Amino acid sequence: MTRKNIKTVIAGTLLSALVMGWMGCKKFLSPEAVSSFDTEYVFDNITNARKALLGSYNSLTGDYGYGIRISGYWAYDSDEMIKGTNSTTTDEGQLLAKYLSIASNLQITNPFNQMYTGAERANLCIYNIPKMELYTIGSAQQQAQLKRMLGEAYVLRAQFMYELCRNFGDVPFQKQPSQYTSNLFQSRMSRDSIYDQLLTDLKQAEDLMPWRTDVSSIGDAVDQRFTKGSAKALRAKIALTRGGYSLPVSGGALSRPSNYLDFYKIAHDECADLIANPTQHTLLSSYKDLFKNYLLAHNLNDPAGEYIMVASMANGADSKLGIQTGTRVNGVGGGNLNILPTYFYMFDSTDLRRDVTCVPYEITFDTIKTGHAMNAVYDGKFRKEWVSNPSFVFSAGSASTSNRPATNNALQNMQLSWPLIRFADVLLWYAETENEINGGPTAAAIDAVSRVNLRGHGGSYKETPPVIPTTKDGFFKFLVKERMLEFGNEGVRKYDLIRWNLLATAVNETRARLNAWATATESNHPVMPLYSYMENGPAYAQDATQLPTYLYFMKTPARSNIDDFNPFLNSYYKPSDIKAAPTGQVRVAWWLGGSGQVTYVNSIASGFKTGQSELMPIPQSQRDVNPNLSPQNFGY
Fold first, then answer.
1. What would the pLDDT profile of 480-503 be if each residue is shown by its tens digit?
2. How far apart are CA 396 and CA 385, in angstroms?
3. What is the reported pTM?
4. Which neighbouring-strand residues pair with 419?
């Protein structure tokens, strides 16, 4: 074999590793060494450099990325939904969600390793792309493509490091590829210093990347890669976290920096810039379509550009979203996340977001919807019954006529992507920063919140529009509720509550409300305790006498539009005194408390400890390899 052929084989092998994953690497930040001889060929042309970049994108996906562990395990429990209701479980995923995790929990260790693998791959691109000849002497199009790739690598590294910092606090941060680092056993770096570096990096990335509608002008296809909007939105998100409350690794009280408004100003300006460019990103008119006809149809290029940043599961990337989560079909799947009854009733009766986010039924015999009691309502944004795409094959051979996978219970990967940032985030972040910076809500802040709330009600109010408070505290509490309603089941709530220093309060007050439900009887429906940290929602969320004791449904095959069919015949919001189910109907004891609600009381965040649980432990296997990963986070 000639020397040239040998080099080609080595380069091809490296590209395969970059794209498919380096998952066999056991050591922290120590993947297989990449020689300069190899990188000379990988970063020799546009095509190979893009493959190297896609290797970093690949670390967003799969079981240990946003395919289920980080999206479906790390982000719970909170005051909206919980992962599982078994308070004596030995399941590692549920233990993590209940804040009973230990440093050897593999549901922490494996995603931790994968985030660092993604950062290492991004580092390879950040280091090598600017050194490519084409970066400086290529055609205008080639230079623009490479600059975009460099910007994407900065965004990818920022996303990986942000995820690590918000979950583990101070962590090692390596800015060069491992092959150019003399000491791989690095100490933990202050998360604030890391955030500051990421804010600088993302500002640079903005100048390197095109807007989403401009990618074709540099010869790139319109796809799910990151663009200028992604860099700006992630910069706003990190700035708000940097300016928010956080837990020291030594434990104790959460605190925020004295100059927190400086970071709110960064977030404000980035959001303002995005809002000022509606041709790039804005709200899609229909909240339901955003999930049913775009996310679950495997089409994230929605015309409004609301999906600013996603962890794309394209090209067969593994994703258990819609399998472990969402509706239960024919007794299989779903049920990974339970909607708390207290959350269900934070929606008013005309808020269309409720029926997108909350599913009080399961599908049996392929087409029949069987109603559930209040204590068995599941998450709905990744529901199996809505998944569709003519080109997506659900079973061996060919797709079904309806392109829906309800009858295929063996399916383990529906390739559903995970939304990282939506334009609704930008509007509500903007409103939050306006309120903080100005000591109260401005007209622009109220307008931004109104746009999100109005879309949630279908574009027009059937009842009286909500009264948005004009005081700083009142407006903030309205925002706390609005973000809860808008982003249920999107892994947002827990981290919002932490940066607001409200997670402990939310857990305790939600548990108190659930306890009141647990003592309910048919003749004694208690008045629910009020929330102190957010607006309390509609009146019927407080006065249980206005809610039905029973619900009734028809256990008959649904119409052809099964995905738009609600099996319940009476209202969730009006009392029902009917004792026996009418002919042809099935009765569900909807409101009654007792053991079902006690299960929630005992289960929700059962191991949560204020001043400890806001961070997860550094994986013990990494501390065994690297003696510099001390101290361990408090309490572990």
1. 999 999 999 999 999 999 999 999
2. 18
3. 0.92
4. 310
